[in-house]
């Protein structure tokens, strides 16, 4: 089905599908193995112990790669549109891309350095991934408004901005509640110390994560009218 999609719209579609599957598969495996409680664990909790840890690490790394490709194509698309419309500075577009790629790097760190093995590095990676991701989608929402009405409808812009606002609102309590947790563990039980902080922080984390997924879903229509041509020139000496 993906190969039948026009332009390069299959790229964000694949990103959304793969990332959703990464979260769901690792969650189901961790619950069935009895490694986590099914009620709102951290995303990283679902990929801490084997065998789900291998699946989680592999799939999240692929998601980071697909996100990088999607962001770069989005950058090229805006640059192309900007040639005739001049709705955003090229430096702003480049800065937005760099912020997004920083978030992808954070995803790679989260997937590689697992929560219980190297918690400090894992937490830094998660902070970079979520923080940069929130900034990226907010900047993209602002760029989308600037491209209206020629390149985007106001309805799509409103959707993107709404997702950005919800993600920003959820990101702050996610960090605040997580900072109040005094221990690093994955087998949380309702009623124990710091469980409320864990529960609220985890809800916010899932909200931000799926906010990213729904945001990239809105790129599909934009990517339908854009194709990338790769040309190779061989010079004979």
Automatic annotation (TrEMBL):
The primary location reported for this protein is: membrane
- Domain CWH43-like N-terminal, by residue range, is 8-225
Which domain of life does the UniProt lineage start with? Eukaryota
The record's family statement is: Belongs to the DRAM/TMEM150 family.
Q: Where in the cell is it found?
A: Endomembrane system
A GO term from the CC aspect? lysosome
PANTHER family xrefs? DNA DAMAGE-REGULATED AUTOPHAGY MODULATOR PROTEIN 1, FASTING-INDUCIBLE INTEGRAL MEMBRANE PROTEIN TM6P1-RELATED
**Keyword terms of this UniProt record:** Membrane, Transmembrane, Transmembrane helix
Could you list the residue ranges that cross the membrane? Answer: 54-73, 94-114, 120-139, 151-177, 197-220
InterPro entries assigned: CWH43_N, DRAM/TMEM150_Autophagy_Mod
Lineage runs: Eukaryota, Metazoa, Chordata, Craniata, Vertebrata
Gene (name only): Dram1
Q: Which GO terms describe its biological process?
A: regulation of autophagy
In what way does this protein cross or attach to the membrane? Multi-pass membrane protein
The molecule here is called DRAM1 protein
């Amino acid at each position: 089905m993906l190969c039948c999609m026009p332009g390069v719209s299959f790229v964000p579609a694949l990103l959304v599908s793969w990332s959703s599957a990464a979260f769901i598969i690792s969650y189901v495996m961790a619950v069935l193995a009895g490694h986590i409680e099914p009620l709102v664990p951290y995303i990283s909790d679902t990929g801490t112990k084997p065998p789900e840890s291998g699946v989680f690490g592999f799939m999240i790394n692929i998601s980071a790669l697909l996100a990088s490709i999607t962001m770069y194509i989005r950058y090229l698309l805006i640059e192309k549109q900007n040639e005739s419309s001049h709705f955003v500075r090229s430096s702003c577009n480049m800065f937005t891309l760099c912020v997004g790629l920083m978030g992808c790097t954070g995803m790679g760190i989260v997937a590689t350095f697992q929560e219980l093995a190297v918690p400090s590095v894992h937490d830094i990676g998660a902070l970079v991934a979520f923080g940069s991701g929130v900034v990226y989608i907010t900047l993209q929402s602002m760029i989308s408004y600037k491209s209206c009405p020629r390149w985007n409808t106001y309805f799509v812009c409103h959707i993107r901005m709404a997702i950005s606002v919800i993600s920003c609102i959820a990101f702050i309590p996610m960090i605040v509640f997580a900072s109040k947790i005094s221990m690093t563990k994955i087998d949380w039980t309702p009623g124990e110390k710091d469980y409320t902080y864990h529960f609220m922080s985890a809800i916010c984390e899932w909200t931000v994560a799926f906010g990213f997924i729904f945001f990239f879903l809105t790129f599909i229509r934009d990517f339908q009218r854009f194709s990338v041509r790769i040309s190779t020139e061989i010079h004979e000496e």
